[in-house]
Amino acid sequence: MQNLLDPAILFFAFGLLAGLLKSNLEIPPAISRFLSLYLLMALGLKGGFALAKSGLNAEVATTLGCAVALALTVPLLGYQLMRRFLNGYDAAAIAATYGSVSAVTFITTLQYLEGRGMPYGGHMAAAMALMESPAIILAVLLANRLRQGAVAGQASVVQAGAGVLALGGAPVPSPASHSVSLGKLLHEAFTDGAQLLLLGAMVVGMLTGEKGEAMMAPFSVDLFKGMLAFFLLDMGLTAARQLAQLGRPSPFLLVYAVAGPLLHASLALGLALAFGIEPGNGALLMVLAASASYIAVPAALRFAIPEAKPALYLGLSLGVTFPFNLLFGIPLYVSVAWRLLA
Predict the structure, then answer these.
(1) Considering the chain, what is the average pLDDT of its residues?
(2) d(CA 77, CA 81)
(3) Whole-prediction pTM
(4) Residues 26, 237: contact at Cβ < 8 Å?
(5) Whole-number percent of the chain with pLDDT over 70
(6) Which of 4, 6, 7, 11 is nearest to 237 (CA)?
(7) What sign for the dihedral angle of Cα 269, 252, 139, 315?
(8) How many angstroms separate the CA atoms of 54 and 121, rounded?
(9) Which of 55-59, 71-75, 190-194, 292-296 has the lowest mean pLDDT?
(10) Is the torsion defined by CA of 203, 338, 112, 30 positive or negative?
(11) Could you give the C-alpha distances from 274 to 264, 271, 277, 278, 282, in angstroms and in order?
(12) One Pfam family, short name please (predicted)?
């Protein structure tokens, strides 16, 4: 309940309510984009300043290794589970969405930890950056394999199509026609503006250290809480719209949108226990594993897997999982991490 009394969380709840009531309240897209870039820049600076103090050590390497392991394991497990209930393209899209991360959920957790005086490492911002792209790449590889399988299965249809053409019919389309180049995908993943800004701000923070931290404090510290609250107001409005577009999905999908994050957080907790990761970093690792992307991954999937339904994977991640994590998940993950990892 204490988490619900945080001003930023209350603004999210207010935006969600306003959206469900079909209010005409809205944040212009350009302002929303600016707020997201500001939050990423401020997060990168905070991480860089913290890394300048702590330096790179074995714990940092271990935590980043666990983050990469989760970024590969979660989407693969999700795909195997979803494939039992959905077609391959929707299964790959949902697996990618839940295998990637939500920067806003992560940033909100940082505020939650700082408000309670709980320490964490600046390198966790790098962990977030590392966990964003692997799920997208895996999903595209899975989708390309599905298309190739469809082509092989339609070989007889294609042969029959030759006879149809001789009679003036139309050619049989090839499912492989939308296969995505992995090289192009990798280029887009590693040159994405938001991710580059995050990493660039971390480098600036590491290079400037304490002097840079003092100079940037009015920008990256004093304004941060208000900017986050404004952005979460917009996220509440957006989440309400996605809930409306989601319609009535299978009850299994609704259960997965809540139970999936809990399972993924448990995997992260297991790694944190196995490798002796500190409580604050373990809590953030759990949050990253439990979160679902609603910006970077959906944007990539619209191009890479057009066969999948955006209302399904975006509606679940932003309409169900994001509110659950923000209102209930964050305090749960932090509490469990502090009890078991301290």
Answers:
(1) 85
(2) 6
(3) 0.83
(4) yes
(5) 86
(6) 11
(7) negative
(8) 8
(9) 190-194
(10) positive
(11) 16, 5, 8, 11, 11
(12) Sbt_1
Q: How many CA atoms lie within 13 A of 251 on its CB side?
A: 0
User: Which two structure tokens, joined as six digits, stand for 197?
Assistant: 């800004």
Backbone angles phi, psi at 18, to 5 degrees: -60, -40
Say how far apart CA 147 and CA 329 lie, in whole Å.
37
Q: What is the DSSP string of 107-136?
A: HHHHHHHHHTT----TTHHHHHHHTTSHHH
Q: What pLDDT, on a 0 to 100 scale, did the predictor assign at position 3?
A: 56
The backbone torsions φ and ψ at residue 127, rounded to the nearest 5 degrees and listed phi first, read -60, -40
Residues 293-319 as b or e (16 or more Cβ within 10 Å = b): bbbbbbbbbeebbebbbeebbbbbbbb
Alpha carbons 7 and 314: distance in angstroms, whole number: 26
Instruction: Please list, in sequence order, all residues whose beta carbon lies within 8 angstroms of the beta carbon of residue 311, skipping any fewer than 6 positions away.
Output: 242, 245, 246, 247
Q: Which CATH architecture has domain 30-149+180-341?
A: Up-down Bundle (1.20)
| CA angle, 65 then 42 then 6, to 5° | 95
What would the mean pLDDT of 166-175 be, rounded to a whole number? Answer: 48
